[in-house]
Write a structure and sequence with these properties.
Blueprint (H helix, E strand, L loop, with lengths): L2 H4 L14 H10 L4 E5 L2 E4 H17 L7 E5 L4 H12 L3 E4 L6 H10 L2 E7 L3 H11 L5 E4 L11 E2 H5 L15 E6 L9 E5 H14 L7 E3 L7 H4 L1 H8 L2 E4 L5 H10 L4 E4 L1 H9 L10 E5 L6 H9 L2 E9 L4 E5 L11 H8 L4 E2 L3 E7 L15 E7 L5 E2 L3 H7 L5 E9 L5 E6 L4 E3 L2 E3 L1 H9 L4 E11 L3 E10 L7 H9 L10 E4 L12 H11 L4
Parallel strand pairs: 1-11, 3-4, 3-5, 5-6, 6-7, 10-11, 10-12, 12-13, 13-14, 25-26
Antiparallel strand pairs: 1-2, 8-9, 9-19, 14-15, 15-16, 17-18, 18-20, 20-21, 22-23, 24-25
Helix pairs in contact: 2-3, 2-10, 3-4, 5-6, 8-10, 12-13, 13-14
């Protein structure tokens, strides 16, 4: 009876591969004369930006780059890196943006493991790339980005040479499942893994961001999230949808960011909690009016930092995701009744990871022992599991890790969380960071939130230390503000006044904290240090 409903009718008229390339193709016409990028004295429209992207693609083709080739890039957030987010996939090639703050050994590993065809590098990073080539024992062709002309590059080809080519015609991939980008995890617990993104996922992530963030037409967006981190949370592609004006500063010094936010009347930005803290603590900080809308992710933000950000005029929404999920896949969607809460209580709500973004099929918090969803009691912990079109294709050249991550048809995040009565998810810890003391589970995130409330604390991390009586006890590593006087006993007493005594740190170590290039505290280093301390006597 319903044969026509099931007839195979997919064809070129009704099925087109989803790709973020479509966004720039449209922006080239729809937003032709509107500003796309501003960087110092450089200001380009969307028409000019699209033409440069198509020319750069033609230039890469002339160098022999073809479909499926990996193009590695070492660059800060500047217009050239933004343009490569369109130029490389237009060729059908794969964009591999490398963390610019990594040590040469890891850069060498990524270049080798990714099977890069060539490297495009800012000349200021040429010494890092040369050392990586030495470690690998071989060179690759290099295209120099001469943003800072006083730095010597490799002298083979420049990015300006690429953009001198006649623009390539627009073309979408034959298959939306085709690889678009290769992003490497932060490597906080061993060698980084290569995470494969496809065109379909990037398209849907960008569209979901527009909907979930309620991006208006023509926002002024400050580029703060490094584009080597989940392709800047896919914001370079989202901005083309709404004709955004993207402001670049090259580095994220607080004074530069604050100046750009004021001069350009920035409306939107994304930033890790550590960047929010830097902005709030800067002597140049002045309250913004109207407020600037901010997405923050990368680590659960302490409520104390969210309170400061709100006072500065930053309207912050906590989002959550991983490299494996193209960036954010859940959001702490604001509820109007929260407006009536005191500032501290509002910040506690903001610190939740919330509910799924519009493009995400499902987020569960699962008891891995039983396979059942945890109750919505805000207490019972489980592991976050995700099902979405914005989950990676898999780990490059690592089928065993891919199979483990996708066990049972879900992506397993490794994050321990609870679910509140309203369905909002809140991370309690990485599973490996939960402290089990006397049979009680202690969330390091909860203890860290209390530590951050002390005015002398700049940064804090809590890990397990062996304990002869309790098995494990909380050990706090704390970085103090300059000149701030604080003793271990004073800080422990401060915590014991605010949380259950068994959760308070029994040890406090003061000093600078080890961090990844994206500002995440390297807890694996601290866990090793706590083990080296031996059992708490």
């Amino acid at each position: 009876m319903h044969q026509q409903l099931d007839a195979p009718t997919r064809n070129a008229a009704n099925h087109v591969a989803l790709s973020p390339l479509s966004f720039l193709k449209r922006a080239e016409t729809v937003y032709a004369n509107l500003p796309a990028v501003t960087y110092g004295d450089t200001r380009r429209s969307w028409r000019e930006t699209a033409a440069r992207c198509r020319s750069a693609a033609a230039g890469l083709a002339a160098l022999g780059v073809k479909t499926g080739d990996t193009v590695a890039v070492l660059s800060p957030n500047i217009p050239e890196l933004f343009e490569l987010h369109y130029a490389v996939p237009l060729l059908g090639a794969v964009l591999n943006t490398i963390n610019t703050r990594l040590e040469p050994e890891t850069v060498a590993y990524i270049i080798d493991h990714s099977d890069a065809r060539l490297v495009i590098a800012d000349t200021a990073l040429a010494p890092l790339l040369r050392r990586a080539f030495e470690i690998n024992g071989r060179d690759l062709p290099v295209v120099d980005i001469t943003d800072l002309p006083d730095h010597a590059g490799f002298g083979q080809t420049t990015f300006d040479d690429l953009t001198a080519h006649p623009p390539m015609d627009w073309a979408l991939p034959q298959d939306e499942w085709q690889a678009l980008a290769l992003n490497y995890t932060s490597g906080t617990s061993g060698r980084p893994k290569g995470v494969i993104y496809h065109h379909r996922g990037a398209y849907l992530m960008a569209m979901g961001t527009v909907a979930g963030w309620a991006l208006p037409p023509h926002p002024t967006y400050l580029s703060v999230v490094p584009m080597f981190h989940c392709n800047g949370w896919n914001h370079p592609w989202a901005m083309a949808i709404v004709g955004g004006h993207i402001i670049f500063t090259r580095d994220i010094a607080p004074a530069k960011l604050l100046a750009a936010m004021g001069v350009h009347r920035v409306t939107h930005l994304g930033a890790a909690p550590i960047v929010l803290q830097m902005l709030c603590d800067s002597p140049d900080a002045r309250p913004f009016d109207p407020k600037i809308r901010v997405l923050t992710a990368g680590a659960p933000p302490p409520p104390a930092i969210l309170e400061k950000a709100s006072a500065l005029g930053l309207d912050v929404m906590q989002v959550y995701g991983l490299t494996e999920t193209y960036g954010h896949i859940s959001q702490c969607l604001w509820q109007e009744e929260w407006d009536r809460l005191p500032a501290g209580a509002r910040a506690e709500k903001q610190a939740q990871q919330g509910v799924a973004f519009p493009m995400v099929e499902d987020i569960r918090v699962v008891d891995r022992t039983t396979g059942a969803d945890v109750p919505r009691d805000g207490l019972t912990q489980g592991e976050i599991a995700i099902r979405s079109n914005t989950v990676m294709k898999g780990y490059y050249k690592n089928p065993s890790a891919t199979a483990e991550a996708f066990a049972g048809g879900w992506f397993w995040s490794g994050d321990a969380a609870v679910v509140h009565s309203d369905g909002y998810v809140q991370i309690r810890d990485r599973l490996k960071d939960v402290i089990i003391s006397g049979g009680e589970n202690i969330s390091s995130v909860e203890v860290e939130a209390v530590l951050y409330r002390h005015p002398a604390v700049l940064a804090a991390a809590v890990v397990a230390r062996p304990d002869p009586k309790w098995g494990e006890s909380p050990c706090a590593f704390v970085e103090l503000r300059d000149g701030a006087p604080l003793t271990e006993a004073e800080l422990i007493a401060f915590c014991r006044d605010r949380i259950a005594h068994f959760k308070a740190p029994k040890t406090v170590i003061f000093g600078a904290l080890p961090k990844t290039a994206t500002g995440k505290i390297q807890k694996f280093v601290l866990r090793a240090a706590a083990r080296d301390l031996g059992p708490k006597s």
